[in-house]
Amino acid sequence: MTMNDYISSIKDKRVCVIGIGVSNKPLIEKLLKAGCDVTACDKRSIEQLGEDYLRLLSLGAKFSLGDSYLENLNYDIIFRTPGLMPFDEHLTKAVANGAVVTSEMEVFFKLCPCRIIAVTGSDGKTTTTTIISELLKAQGYTVHLGGNIGHPLLCEVDSMKPEDFAVLELSSFQLHSMVCKPNVAVITNISPNHLDKHKDYRDYIDAKSSIFTRQDSTDRLVLNSENEYSSYYAGMVKSAIMYFSRVKMPENGVYCEDGIVCRVHDGVRAQLMHADDIKLPGTHNLENYMAAFAATDGLVSDETCIKVAKEFSGVEHRLEQVRVKDGVTYINDSIGTSPSRTAAGLHALKTKPILIAGGYDKHIPFDSLGDEICLHTKALFLTGATSEKIEQAVKASKYYTEDFKMVTIDDFKQAVLSAADYAQAGDIVLLSPACAAFDKFKNFMERGKYFKQIIMEL
Predict the structure, then answer these.
(1) Which of 177, 184, 294, 343 is 20 to 30 Å from the Cα of 328, by its Cα?
(2) How far apart are CA 418 and CA 415, in angstroms?
(3) Residue 193 scores a pLDDT above 80
């Protein structure tokens, strides 16, 4: 089925698209231009939407805006925004009244003509997704990067070819209740995250499983041997499993022993490369590469894997060196939106950094982060909604001492400037918030760009 076929099949339906954001705007425009009856719903006002409102209005869109934008969802088909969970009372009521709830990404899976590699996890999924894309491109494939990374792909499906690859980063929000069947699925790891949105931790864990539950024996699932939930997932799968590990050799997969990364097929290992040759620092990036090597096994040559690992310098906002000024190195790790991701960043650095942390409260415990901060940072500058919770976790750590430098400054810019003032030649100032950015910014990218702007203006 092509995109035009799909649009033709819903042309006589009343369509609602919730969220006039990056992923849904192209879809709304496509449907309107095809003559569909579309209502765009968004919590923002006409003034806040600005040019987006005027453009969609000119194309014939109807609107439901403001605080009551989810009331009266009397439609045949509803495209939900990823941040609105399927168990929302407005959506469940609409389903009970006969509506079909779907999403831009779910329809993409239905229409995509090419092979799909999909990546999810609590940490590392953006870097792993990007590495997979880089490996495939270096091998000569045409790659379409999308999902939580890149740009919306649904409206481009008709230009894709069967021999291409779509490489997708998928969040638990997107995966929750979604029907999808990637050729290769990757789960980097699972740790508490987004507990402000999910019913509970089990709901979050099970949402991730949607990435593989419809796979069959012709498909592949890549799991992290060291993650406690991998055995739970493995007991549910029908697809072939490949593991990646820093501890033990799997029957099939990729692992590292004594600094050597090896591929393993049916218990027989073959050396691939030295871990020290990977340009991106940190054991978490070693794991990201092993996951990517397992995902592309049989598709990308050893020579290409080695070349990319030696040359790829990373993704913006992920331990990204911004500048060195007066002997101080400034690093942007705004993607550090969970305690485990920030901890991984701290372990990747050879010098204890001056850490800037805090942000939107996802109701994730910071207990273990308190230990990591005491052990692996020189000082802590807190900012944002979670400042008090992180401070409490630090003070509760058995490694905490009264002479540890810890400052709370609500204003983000002032917190950054104060950390810079405190730094001396040889220090690292690291932005790795351990939290989402929604308390002050639209997303972690906007936060990271603002941090870089502040640093470049020093």
Answers:
(1) 343
(2) 5
(3) no
- With a cut of 80, say whether residue 150 has pLDDT above it: no
- Using CA atoms in the order 329, 361, 18, 180, what is the torsion angle rounded to 10 degrees? 80
Sequence-distant (≥ 6) Cβ neighbours of residue 403 within 8 angstroms = none
Amino acid found at 425: A
Instruction: Determine the Cα–Cα distance for residues 303 and 311; give it in Å rounded to an integer.
Output: 12
- C-alpha distances in angstroms, 56 versus 8, 20, 78, 109, 211? 20, 10, 17, 26, 33
Cα(187)–Cα(185) distance, integer angstroms: 7
Distance CA 187, CA 172 (A): 11
CA angle (216, 218, 219) in 5-degree steps: 70
Q: Which residues contact 157 (CB under 8 A, 6 or more apart)?
A: 2, 3, 108, 111, 112, 113
Distances (CA, A) of 25 to 50, 56, 61, 102, 300: 13, 9, 11, 16, 35
What integer pLDDT is reported at residue 230 of this predicted model? Answer: 95
Predicted confidence (pLDDT) per residue in 12-66, tens digit: 999 999 999 888 999 999 999 999 999 999 999 999 999 999 999 999 999 999 9
